[in-house]
Amino acid sequence: MWVGDELVAGGEPEAEPIYGQTYLPRKFKTVVAVPPSNDVDIYAHDLGYIAITDDQGKLCGFNVTVGGGLGMSHNQIDTFPRLADVLGFCTVSKRSTSPKRLC
Fold this sequence. Notes:
This protein has about 100 residues and is mainly β.
């Protein structure tokens, strides 16, 4: 709980007892969008996958977006969430052990 700029109660622990410093105390939101329908706001989540198809509608892969911010801490501007950016493209394969581009 904050009173003005001062934390007077609560807050997060410095380290989680089991996971240590790698613990993510907030939600990590992942979404999938299949154009032309965009039922989710792909750029407002931590991790997003945008399906990419060829002219016949066959799935080629996914554009991967990263953004979010895992929430925010009061009065700390560096923790404000941000819109996602497209990180790259990942292909699909018939077998998960040997990735091959299908398009």
